Amino acid sequence: MQRRHFLQTAAAATLSTPMSRLWAAPAAQGQPKFILVFLRGAYDATNLLVPHANSFYYESRPHIAVPRPGEGADAAIALNADWALHPALRESMLPLWQAGQLAFVPFAGTRDMTRSHFETQDHIELGQGPQTRDFNDGFLNRLVQQIGGRAQPMAFTAQLPLSLRGTHRVPNLAIAQAGHTGIDDRQRALIESMWSHSAQGAAVREGFAVHQTVAQDMQASGWQAEMVAASRGAVAPKGFVAEAVRIGGLMRDSFNVGFIDVGGWDTHVNEATDNGARGQLADKLAALGQGLAGLAQAMGPAWHHTTVVVLSEFGRTFRENGNRGTDHGHGTVYWVLGGAVRGGRIAGEQIVQSPSTLNQNRDDPVLTEDRDLLGGLFQRLWGLRPSQIEAVFPGSRPVDLQLV
Amino acid sequence: MISALSSPRNPSRRRWLGRLAALGFGTAVLDAPAMAQMAASPDVAALAPAGRLDAAAQADPVAFLDRVGWGASAGQLQALARLGATAYLHELLQPSADPALPPDWAAQLAALPVNQPLETLIPPIVREERAIRQARKDDPQADAADAEARLKAINRFKYDLAQQAAAQQVVLGLYAQNGLQQRLSWFWLNHFNVFRSGNIGPMMGDYTQRVIAPHALGRFRDLLRATMFSPQMLLYLNNAQNARGHVNENYAREVMELHTLGVGSGYTQADVTNLARALTGLGVDLLDKPVRVRPALRADLWRQGLVVFNPARHDADPKTVLGHTLQGRGLDEIDEVIALLADHPATARHISTQLAQYFVADAPPPALVESMTQRWRATGGQIAEVLRAMFTSPAFIASLRQPQFKDPTRYVLSALRASLGDEPIRNPQPVLGMLARLGEPLFGRQTPDGYPLDAGAWDGSGQLTARFEVARQIGGGASALFAPPPDFMRQSAPPATADMAQTMDAPLADHARAKPPHRPPPDLARSAVYLAQQNQLSTATLRALAQADNRLSWNTLWLSSPEFMNA
User: Fold this and answer.
1) Is the Cβ of A12 closer than 8 Å to some Cβ of chain B?
2) pTM of the predicted model, to two decimals?
3) Given B459, B472, B538, which is nearest A182 (Cβ)?
């Protein structure tokens, strides 16, 4: 049954029965789950995935380069002969890498060269290719349509992201706001009746239903206990870490396509103190890693068929600027993690960065396009046909990096 | 060209203070020549299909008032009925220095520390902060708890200042008579968005009242200059750190992309880099101390308030921006850049489009944008004239029947204006909470693009649910609005000692903790705004209202109706 129909039927059927645990039926065994984590602000991927064998990196970043592997407590962690991981992720993400559940795709991104945060974010989220620009047609919404009745999408954001806008109405809820409503069932029915003929009628019904489901799920799943476990009994984690754990619990029980965004990566000034291993970027990466690790744990067995992609609109300049920061660049690094991910490797085409191989002698080139990468991934996850991938990413050429 | 910065168009801080005192509380200051120019604008009747606008506004006065200000109130409905839409709009388009607030509020706001000139307010805070940190560095054995307490008190004071500025915006939104200027001020505040972190928060009163509001209905070039020479923007987008040999291109990029030309208008990475070079040396001195430069450069040193142009940090080599060669003449070069950006045809189109999206429709008719762009170019970017062209267009009149989904600020302010009686609120804090809950807190947008304003950004399922909660809160009478003002409104000076800091940590005084007096839900079914709107309500809404079993429910339903959320 289409969820839309279900909602309408349920609303019509009775006003007194709460539509509790609407999506709480356990997912069919092995059904894939997908979560997109959007790092808004263009994180400095060059300091996440450090080209530790490249002396040009250390020349280009006299103040904010992450020390070479082996060079003290702040050193980058070698992943292979070329690449090393930022030490802020040692506790959280290194274990996943070692378990083969985390891969990185460097030189990833879009062909958009505006270096505008907002243009490029829109470009990625719409996923329509260079020609069209319909702001009510995001790629995750098109994906949801291709998955069909199996899809249970949710945006864990205060605003519905562009990628989930489209003909399939997708609920959104900022986790921090999930709580009990003061609107009683009678008022709710009357509000729904006022809106029934308007463009937002479905959203109104959905809003009430989802709000209730989420509030009950959170109560039932005892997410607080999980949160403590995920932080290993440390002080209660705040912000993203706490939210990610709650999202993990909800994704485990009720949803299979999720969207999260994390802001604040625009590091023009004081990206790092002392060296690239400490400071603003390191703190954000540490919190992101802890959050993702907490999310993985909260998902329990569902983690085995979950894939998380972490991306950002673009990378930053290869060289540091005059203020121990970096300016807007081009290519970035995508993360792919999950229980069934074929990780522990750096995937996709790579080059050695030098003045002659950098894009405009400034930043990383894009060698793997966002739409090709994600299309290839979706193809494997859901066994979508080429025509279905074409519907999600028109004109793309899916590349199979065998990430799952 | 330097003199232009202190010309009558940009009254100096001292003059501004004088006027503030003269007005009791002054938001906008437009000097006599500018006023005369406004008054001399072409006859309204000659431009407008006036009869049609008047008729449309008469048919749906609430919809009209929702577009030209922060929403209908009883007083505005009377004024509109008395004057007719065309004459009323003409009045709204005159910039006014005096928001004509209720007297108690005018006095209370004028006394807030956040309205002090920045050079009085900020340097002592920053000096104190640095002194504490330095002392801690010099003597790590010293009383760490004491230093912590002092730093905490400073941070609290900074937070309080930002809260004061936000509360002031709420009061202005609810009660100011110059409604269109207030609404535009919010639009420009969002267009030239800065985020309230660090030392920017305590300077938000200055940003709203000195940088933005006086120019909201004036000339765009002056508004752009005011933001470019504001310490808030220089700090937020890092131009304060932009220096010769240490170029930081953040501001240069965003000023072209967001503030003026618009992305995709043809500028290149080289334009961004060269513009950043042209803007080197324009920075901020939060300590307000003398700047020393070598004698040869001394004549080029310039400062106003906390903003400093330091020629020693400026890249004086020639550079090309947008095909125009800048000769590297220091501050004059920056004025040249302002003219280049503000007067560019792409800017006229970009900003006319955004204004039409905000006031008329998410996808405004191209012909409307075209006529606004032409008006912009004919008047040298006079914002009031561009708006006049918009509000008197057939497209605007037609749009009154195709309502827009309100963004949270429009929703909250219009719901309160429709619901509040004659007694002014005492505590604006619950309103700040509503705005935050609905995702549009004042000064809370972290990125420079400002909040999105199209319906798709605000009508998601999660937001609608939250909005019904707010409707219930307002429909219930929101007693907390009439409770004594919060502590931050009583804060009059920075805490000077750790003792005071501890006092501030102490439990709130009894009067602040006391529950507000209970107020019964207002009788909104008899309110002027409902009576003016009821003919426009759908059968479904009227039927639901008829089924409400008590006043709270009725109020909640009306404020939750599609007609109230769209305007």
Assistant:
1) no
2) 0.86
3) B472
